[in-house]
Design goal:
By secondary structure, this protein is α/β, with parallel strands linked by helices. It is built from eight helices and eight strands; from the N terminus they run ααβββααβααβαββαβ. It has a single domain, classed as Rossmann fold, CATH 3.40.50.2020.
Length: 222
């Protein structure tokens, strides 16, 4: 740790992104480590329509949902810790299977209003664990309605068609595509389509959390 980072940690001690307790280093506190809805086994990875593989360390519910929404809409706090969760999940599910890391971008308007792009922060944090940097391979050219405001895969699919364009060279490369949440997967699939259209050899996806399919049981059986 360099002196600048030590000074920052002294003035602004790292906090668990889920409960906001001060913790040691960029990590989840022990209590949240036990209480978070972790995905396990086969649930840690899903294959979306079209064959896109997507790994996620958490279910998007309860403590995880609260922490991710806080990170997403209230300043991006906790990005270092959340990025480490992504890096650990990638090491488990797709180590050695990608050459470049990129992210699902928000529109210029939304980034200007919010002050940051949450998926970009996650990609930067994960890449620091790998001693590399994410590459901006996509740009969002339409400020469409948020996917969370729509219901049904058809509406979500229509909402993202044509809103992304390629923004970098990925010809012949295997790309790891990072985002915060996967629900129906329509955004990830559209981004993967654009990347493959730009010459990517393969695309894998990685998100912090995934939603359960209708009727899929929770760990408690509810």
């Amino acid at each position: 740790m360099n002196w600048r980072q030590a000074a920052v940690d002294f003035l602004f001690p790292p906090k668990c992104p889920f409960c906001r307790r001060v913790t040691e280093g960029a990590r989840v506190c022990p209590r949240c480590g036990k209480d978070l809805p972790w995905t396990e086994g086969k649930d840690r990875e899903q294959t979306l329509a079209g064959g896109l593989r997507c790994a996620s360390p958490l279910w998007y519910e309860d403590l995880a949902r609260d922490g991710i929404l806080r990170f997403k809409f209230h300043g991006g706090a906790g990005a270092e810790t959340l990025g480490s969760l992504l890096a650990d999940c990638a090491a488990e599910r797709c180590s050695g299977e990608f050459d470049l890391v990129t992210w699902v971008p928000v529109s210029k308007r939304r980034k200007r209003r919010r002050g940051y792009d949450q998926a970009e922060l996650l990609a930067e944090s994960a890449c620091r664990r790998w001693d590399t940097e994410p590459v901006p391979l996509l740009r969002k050219i339409t400020d469409n309605p948020a996917q969370s405001s729509l219901s049904g895969a058809a509406a979500r699919r229509a909402n993202v068609l044509g809103v992304y364009d390629s923004a970098g060279d990925c010809r012949g490369k295997r790309v790891l595509l990072i985002d915060d949440i996967v629900t129906t997967g329509e955004t990830l699939k559209e981004c993967a389509r654009v990347l493959k259209g730009a010459g990517a050899a393969d695309v894998l996806a990685l998100t912090l959390a995934r939603t359960r399919e209708k009727g899929e049981p929770s760990p408690s059986g509810g």
